[in-house]
Amino acid sequence: MEGDLFVVNASQVLTVASPGGPKRGAALRDVGLTVDGAVLIRRGNVAWVGDAAQVSELAGPHIPFLDAGGRVVLPGLVDPHTHLVWGGARLAEFEQRLAGATYQEIAAAGGGIVSTMQATRAASQEELLASAQRRLDAMLAHGTTTAEVKSGYGLDVISEVKCLEVTRLLGEWHPVELVSTFLGAHAVPPAYRTDPDAYIDQVVIKEMLPRVVRDERALPRNHTGQIRVYANARTHVALAEFCDVFCDAGALDLVQSRRVLEAARAVGLGLKVHADEFEALGATRLAVELGAASADHLVVTPPEDIATLGASDTVAVFLPGTPFGLATGHYADARAFVEAGAAVALATDLNPGTSPCPSMQFIIALACRYMKMLPAEAVAAATINAAHAIRRGDVVGSLEVGKQGDLLILDTDDYRDLAYQFGGNLVHTVVKAGRVVYDREAR
Fold first, then answer.
1. Residue 367 pLDDT more than 90?
2. Which domains are present in the chain?
3. Other Cβ atoms within 10 Å of 70 Cβ, number
4. How far apart are CA 226 and CA 229, in angstroms?
5. Least crowded by CB within 10 Å, which of 204, 253, 320, 357?
6. What does DSSP say about strands 242-247 and 270-275: parallel, antiparallel, or unpaired?
7. Is the separation of the CB atoms in 13 and 55 below 8 Å?
8. Per-residue pLDDT for 218 more than 60?
9. Would the pLDDT of 217 be above 80?
10. C-alpha distance from residue 152 to each of 38, 224, 349 (Å)
């Protein structure tokens, strides 16, 4: 996967460098722009970035050149919140929402997450792998080079493991680098509707968590009890790096969410929280208290909790594709978070019900229009800060010496087109660890 490459003739190179951690406040507007720049990658990592006239002699005669053709070069986009793996579709619910039904009304009638749960349980691992690959291919074509992937549509032990294993298998060979998150606490399945605590305590905490963090027990087995995996699958590695909970009206309450998160932290998983999408239950404060990597959604977060988040290391991840998909017109108040000093990031929330969107480019466009972010802020939120939301900020998200050589060449000479244009795809070339993994002209 790793390679040597010398990218030259760029109209603009954006490093989005931030060696001290995620960008905050005024620093969000500094994308580290170099005019007529170049990037040198050796053995998969950035070796030099800056003025092309200063770097040509460093490249050497054997480094392959990639002519950017006067286009923009910037770090690969990072998507820190996706639900990539699911079965079925929710087209009927889309029509119901158009007719006036709310997300909560559809869920109460047996739709929503539970509907996808049924389709995901019924799908084979091979079917889930094929559909997830198609979505991941689309993400790559739109510039995503690193992405987080959550489970959460199985809601039983076998199906949650099946979804996590699909993520692992994709991560073994797909160019997009994947970070896996366990979300067994996405919703309470119908079988436990009258006793949700039994699902949380017995199924999620006592059954699912141990199988997620102890790989040999988590892998699917055949009828004789033998582990059933694909030939190239790794073993002796946990199936997830993070644990997430959906703490909101109609999902988990604050007490249940705390129990899951504390149990996950006790077995070594990092934490993430779906917080304040529909109602403010205190999930943002809980995320900060427990040292979560991120709190995500944050549509109705009260001012005092914004201040708490702003003073913490927990990244605020905004998902504007979701209110757009739900047509609520109510977006997270990005300016309040930025003014509070929070590290803010953007993500697609790719999922079948509310945001079937694989494009971080479109999310940047939404953030600028409906959350009043400036193009530079949105780019930083979709690269370096998004990387910190999945604790990869020291590896990806910016073009800094020593970091992974992940970059995009955009078919424009001004990076602000990422926010200005929408509905299309500006990506011309995608480079992952120094190797071209997508080339529009070669397809």
1. yes
2. 5-76+398-442 (2.30.40.10), 78-389 (3.20.20.140)
3. 12
4. 10
5. 253
6. parallel
7. no
8. no
9. no
10. 42, 27, 13
